Amino acid sequence: MSPKKVSVSIVNYNTKGFLEGCISSVLAQDYPDIEVVLVDNASLDGSAEFVRDRFPSVKIIENAQNLYFAEGQNVGIRASAGEYVLALNTDVVLEKDFVSEMVRAIESDDRVGSVSGKIMRPDKKTIDTAGQSVGRNRKPVDRGYGETDKGQYDTPGFIFGAGGVCPLYRRAMLDDVAIEGEYFDETYGMYYEDLDLAWRAHARGWKAYYTPKAVACHERGGTGKQVRPFLNILRGYDMAYLPDELKAMLLANRYKTMLKNDKLPDFLLNLPFIILYDIKIWAFVVLFCPGVIPGFLRGLRHLPAAWRRRKLIHGV
After folding, report:
1. What is the mean pLDDT of the chain?
2. What is this structure's pTM?
3. How far is it, in rounded angstroms, from Cα 307 to Cα 316?
């Protein structure tokens, strides 16, 4: 039996500096059947031209405007043909057997719809993520985030979600959980879209799996950190590095995700943790970046669509 095709879908926006390492690592994989699709979101740094000249086998889709991650990935997935889809960030470099190990994991059980590998920081000593869970505060949590790798995540097994760094998806799962033709919810832009997809997959009975044998390196925040916090005390918070537009997007998506996916008993059980986290993030916004608030309020215009989709997901 011939191996199933893996489509690697990469969304790019002005990250030309990462593309050489990222795409080279994909093309060096030992897996025999891979196609690569680059979705360029109207970059101004010559990304598309660079890839066209340097990697002629890559299929390039050039959008007329920045569609952000969620819609950009949907464009790439629709343009691809693989039975499996690797949604890859540009700031990731894969070990040579990464795709082979991810495929081996997803084919271990027909119920598995997504897989995460062991994703390291560039120092290859610090864990970036070993799969995704959802915190009691309803924030996506990367297992092992920032921990020194001592083998504590060397056991494979089921997890909540594969996260958004370089997850492998079964196309049958993506088709099953798609709503109104969208795999990732395009109202999200970016942030929380991976948690939303994982939550919807759970509702449809799909499993997520973690394999420590698939290793990659991720330059955490390489594609999103655009602002340097002006106070040292803020430099430990990833959100502080985002421009106001993306901060607003992240905040609005948090509430859309809970509205779409959280079951009422679970929400009420975790409400104290949710409130405490909201106090923290809104104190940050009010004190240090109140300009985020108008964009956040505009983002809430999607709440009726989120409620409608909740009914499609849960029937209630």
Report:
1. 94
2. 0.94
3. 9
